[in-house]
């Protein structure tokens, strides 16, 4: 898997930390890694964005590429329109990812929000990017009630577009999981139409010192992603 698209069932569910864990594990295996953030929203110029956070956690050996930045914390299409800026389009994203693919062993394309959040006013989404790249999508989802429905909807959208769903990673696993969270570990692969559960990143992982984050990252991801985690 040279290119992986990292999406989610919503926003603020741990996509960036999961992307950083993937990058950290790959780097520890001696692979070269680039992270591509097509559209960064809600961050002012000069401030660190999601791609910068991946580098901070995973290590400076990771290359960070950001195609567009819009100041308001909105869907990329809306943020671009309100800022009077051109949107980032799927063809541009796919071209950037393909160029990185020729230079790095692994390219991680981190989306904004969920799979079908609009990139432009023509209705393009991250799903269109995955289809252009013929790349699998790793879906990040929360652990609590509601996650089965959100995951099933995302899986259905991927199947309808003939896009491979690589699997599911829980983006923030609670320190004291309740009944719903524990049951969801069993039920998430069913909701994802048979796609495997490939990890659970503990809540607060992004606040760990970077050296500890890199040391522990492999324990949060399943063998398919280079780690040792098992449900």
TrEMBL record:
Keywords on this record? Answer: ATP-binding, Biotin biosynthesis, Cytoplasm, Ligase, Magnesium, Metal-binding, Nucleotide-binding
The Gene Ontology CC terms held by the record are: cytosol
Q: Chief location of this protein?
A: cytoplasm
Q: Which GO terms describe its biological process?
A: biotin biosynthetic process
According to its UniProt record, which residues of this chain constitute the active site?
Answer: 37
Tell me the compartments it is located in. Answer: Cytoplasm
- Pfam assignment, any one: AAA_26
Q: In which pathway does it act?
A: Cofactor biosynthesis; biotin biosynthesis; biotin from 7,8-diaminononanoate: step 1/2
Residues bound to Mg(2+) are: 16, 50, 110
Extract the InterPro entries matched here. DTB_synth_BioD (IPR004472), P-loop_NTPase (IPR027417)
Q: What's the domain of life for this entry?
A: Bacteria
Q: Give residues annotated as binding ATP.
A: 12-17, 50, 110-113, 171-172, 202-204
Q: Which cofactor does it need?
A: Mg(2+)
Binding-site residues for substrate, renumbered to this chain: 41
Q: Name one GO molecular function term.
A: ATP binding
Record-listed E.C. numbers:
6.3.3.3
Q: What's its catalytic activity?
A: (7R,8S)-7,8-diammoniononanoate + CO2 + ATP = (4R,5S)-dethiobiotin + ADP + phosphate + 3 H(+)
Q: What does this protein do?
A: Catalyzes a mechanistically unusual reaction, the ATP-dependent insertion of CO2 between the N7 and N8 nitrogen atoms of 7,8-diaminopelargonic acid (DAPA, also called 7,8-diammoniononanoate) to form a ureido ring.
Give the multimer and partner information: Homodimer.
Q: Which family does it belong to?
A: Belongs to the dethiobiotin synthetase family.
Supply the name of the protein.
ATP-dependent dethiobiotin synthetase BioD
The gene it comes from is: bioD
């Amino acid at each position: 898997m040279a290119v992986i698209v990292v999406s989610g069932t919503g926003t603020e569910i741990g996509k960036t930390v999961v992307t950083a864990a993937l990058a950290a594990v790959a780097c520890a295996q001696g692979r070269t890694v680039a992270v591509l953030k097509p559209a960064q929203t809600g961050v002012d110029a000069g401030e660190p964005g999601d791609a910068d956070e991946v580098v901070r956690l995973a290590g400076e050996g990771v290359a960070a590429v950001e195609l567009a930045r819009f100041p308001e914390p909105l869907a990329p299409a809306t943020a671009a329109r309100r800022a009077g800026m051109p949107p980032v389009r799927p063809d541009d994203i796919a071209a950037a990812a393909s160029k990185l693919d020729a230079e790095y062993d692994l390219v991680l394309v981190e989306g904004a929000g969920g799979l079908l959040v609009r990139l432009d006013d023509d209705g393009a989404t991250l799903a269109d990017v995955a289809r252009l790249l013929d790349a699998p999508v790793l879906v990040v989802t929360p652990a609590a009630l509601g996650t089965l429905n959100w995951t099933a909807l995302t899986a259905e959208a991927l199947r309808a577009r003939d896009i491979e769903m690589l699997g599911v990673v829980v983006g923030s696993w609670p320190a004291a999981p309740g009944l719903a969270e524990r049951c969801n570990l069993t039920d998430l692969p069913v909701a994802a139409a048979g796609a495997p559960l490939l990890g659970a990143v503990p809540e607060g992982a992004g606040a760990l010192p970077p050296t500890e984050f890199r040391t522990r990252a492999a324990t949060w991801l399943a063998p398919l992603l280079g780690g040792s985690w098992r449900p």
